[in-house]
UniProtKB/TrEMBL annotation:
A GO molecular-function annotation: heme binding
Entry-linked InterPro entries: Cyt_P450_sf, Cytochrome_P450_fung
Cofactor(s) demanded: heme
Protein name: Cytochrome P450
Keywords associated with the record: Heme, Iron, Metal-binding, Monooxygenase, Oxidoreductase
Cited SUPFAM superfamilies: Cytochrome P450
Gene3D superfamilies xrefs: Cytochrome P450
Family: Belongs to the cytochrome P450 family.
Keyword Metal-binding carried by entry: yes
Species, as recorded: Phakopsora pachyrhizi (Asian soybean rust disease fungus)
The UniProt record lists the keyword Oxidoreductase: yes
Length: 210
């Protein structure tokens, strides 16, 4: 961008297909245009299908930059207490900063949408109720993705040849890497499970991605 600014000036443009991209290369025109004329330039392309056709212009996240958008996005009174709580959470336990950031985002969204926040992510009754469904969902997911691995196993057993894929590679080497069960997770990771000393299973370090 620096080279483009030096060659064409502080404000230039380039066409990418049907879109015209305006490049603002220095601070002065950026402040003049995006602050002084924000009502004109602080916007984004219209999402015709998602914003108008499907939702009839009622979808908040698809609104253009206008008075209605500013009314709906006036979150400062909600963000301030959530920010204070974020700082306190990080000071109390710096190692859990990721969880603190997650809580901040959840607090703002829940307060804006439903007018509520939770003391923690562990004692909200809706969260606890949802966790009770976890085993059923896990069983369904395990059945779904394990069936894909079993299809590969049957193909290997019947033909003796394998497709060039991670599942067949790991299945052929179960004894070599002491794999007891193979699970293909929905995030695309193949997780071998190996015997634990107590007779259970644990994820192996011999895992790969699709």
């Amino acid at each position: 961008m620096e080279a483009i600014t030096k060659k064409y000036g502080p404000v230039s443009s380039v066409r990418l297909g049907s879109e015209l991209l305006v490049i603002i290369g220095t601070v002065k025109p950026a402040v003049a245009l995006l602050e002084g004329r924000s009502g004109i330039y602080c916007d984004w392309p219209r999402l015709e299908m998602a914003g108008n056709v499907i939702s009839g212009g009622l979808q908040t996240i698809c609104l253009g930059y206008n008075d209605r958008w500013r009314r709906f996005r006036s979150y400062e009174p909600i963000q301030e207490p959530a920010s204070r709580q974020l700082i306190l959470d990080v000071l109390e336990n710096p190692t859990l900063y990721r969880e603190a950031l997650t809580r901040y985002a959840a607090d703002v969204i829940m307060k804006v949408t439903y007018g509520k926040v939770s003391p923690t992510c562990h004692d909200d009754k809706e969260v606890i109720m949802d966790k009770s469904r976890k085993k059923k969902w896990q069983a369904e997911e395990l059945e779904l993705f394990s069936s894909q691995v079993e299809n590969v196993r049957r193909s290997l057993d019947s033909s003796g040849t394998r497709d060039n894929c991670f599942a067949s590679y790991m299945l052929e080497r179960q004894t070599e890497v002491r794999i007891e069960v193979l699970v293909l997770k929905s995030d695309g990771l193949m997780v071998p499970r190996v015997p634990r000393p107590d007779g259970g299973t644990m994820p192996s370090t011999a895992s790969g991605s699709k």
